[in-house]
Amino acid sequence: MSNAARSYANEELSNRTIETKKVRSLPLNNQVSIFNIPIVWFCIFTAITLISMYTGNLPGGMIGSLLVMIVLGELFGWVGDRLPIVKTYLGGGAIIAIFGSAYMVYSGLLPETITTSVTDFMKSGGFLSFYIAALITGSILGMNSKILLKVGLRYFLPIGGAVLGAVAITGLIGYLVGFTLQEAVLVIAMPILGGGMGAGAVPMSQIYSELLGNDPSYYISMLVPALALGNVFAIVLASILDKIGNKYPALSGNGQLIKGFQYKKPDLQYDIQKMGAGLLAALTFFTLGTLLGAIIPLHPYAIMIILVAVAKVANIMPSPVIEGASQWYQFVAKNWTFALLFGIGVAYTDLGTVLEALTLQYILTVFGVIVGAIIGAGLLGKLVGFYPIEAAITAGLCMANMGGTGDVAVLSASRRMELMPFAQISSRLGGALILLLAGLIIPLFV
């Protein structure tokens, strides 16, 4: 063999050795993974869960419920975030996690015992409240206090804009498709804007019953389809608003609500003990909100928001608690969002009710509520110095979804979970405003 040929052969062998080493030394992060677990191992965990679930051997209570919610929620979320049309226009993993689980209940794929267990865990077990308490406490305490001071009462202007925009467009579309003004405003627009099921539709049915007659269950059957379908549109349009914000950066603050204020998140050194302090703070603020809610006629979430905001602005909380609350909130949001969305689909989303409402006239009118809320909130938000996209999402879509459950889904679909405090203001204080408004305007239709 010539020297040139020998040199070439050695060079090829050396290159192949280097390439082999590169392949062998690929980091774990370059492998396909779900929930930060290599996909093979995630499939093993999923198989164990499904076998236990369908053989009736899944542990009861929190362990079994949370296992199913994490495994199937993360699986649905992973698929949804990779489906071309769904991930771009329909909310991605958020909407697949919700409606995938709702379909499992509707079709009977999810055993009845699991449905009951997950529903109990979400409702009487308080998992939804536990999640939202972490998000409210951590996101407000971790927020720059100047932002809270700058927002002030101005935030209620885009909320008012959302209500006016929704009622105006709903009335117009309802008239064009054959609904009366009473049907369009009272039966469709008001429940959608009313702060969810427990804090909105249920007390609203009592108000309707007292002022219009009939049993409250009669009105619930009319209000629920509007609420459910409106929540679907809110999630879908949240994803679209995110895409609009990416295409037109001037309209979006990328998760920051206020114009002209640049706030950079500090680099946190995660500390497990501080997270424990953050967990304790979240539980305590939630408990205090519930305690005062027995005296003050406001939803406990609304009271909790006010208490945490006052504590932040007054700078009375020690720094380890502030840092811990922020870290705990990030842990919860990162690891349990898809699990929670799966639980929302099981416990709060009646797919049969949504399907029954799917007439063209009804769909167009409900769509008008959501579009009107977006336009009204975005325009008035811009007028008072907010970014239109963030104002439309928080003061618009979070007024038009299913309360706390809808807030999580909408902010997840729009990739703006840090806006949870403002979303909760819309759902809770805004929802209370709608109940008051309903009591005032219903006599006008009698």
Description:
- The structure is a single chain.
- The chain has a two-stranded antiparallel sheet with strand order 1-2.
- It has helices at residues 3-24, 39-54, 61-80, 84-89, 93-107, 112-122, 127-141, 145-151, 156-177, 181-193, 197-212, 216-247, 272-293, 300-313, 319-347, 351-356, 360-383, 388-397, 403-413, 420-445, and strands at 33-34, 37-38.
- It is 76% helix and 1% strand.
- The protein is built from 20 helices and 2 strands.
- The chain has one domain (127-445).
- The chain has 446 residues and is mostly helical.
Question: Can you describe this structure in just a few lines?
Answer:
The chain has 446 residues and is mainly alpha-helical.
Span between N and C termini? 103 Å
Uncertain stretches: 2-29
SSE series: HEEHHHHHHHHHHHHHHHHHHH
Profile the largest sheet: 2 strands, antiparallel
Number of helices: 20
Level of helix content? Answer: over 70%
The radius of gyration computed from the alpha-carbon positions, rounded to a whole number of angstroms, is: 24 Å
Q: What topology does this entry show?
A:
Elements: H1 3-24, E1 33-34, E2 37-38, H2 39-54, H3 61-80, H4 84-89, H5 93-107, H6 112-122, H7 127-141, H8 145-151, H9 156-177, H10 181-193, H11 197-212, H12 216-247, H13 272-293, H14 300-313, H15 319-347, H16 351-356, H17 360-383, H18 388-397, H19 403-413, H20 420-445
Antiparallel strand pairs: 1-2
Helix pairs in contact: 2-3, 3-5, 3-6, 3-15, 5-15, 5-19, 6-15, 7-13, 7-14, 7-15, 9-10, 9-17, 9-18, 10-12, 10-20, 11-12, 11-20, 12-17, 12-18, 12-19, 13-14, 13-15, 15-19, 17-18, 18-20, 19-20
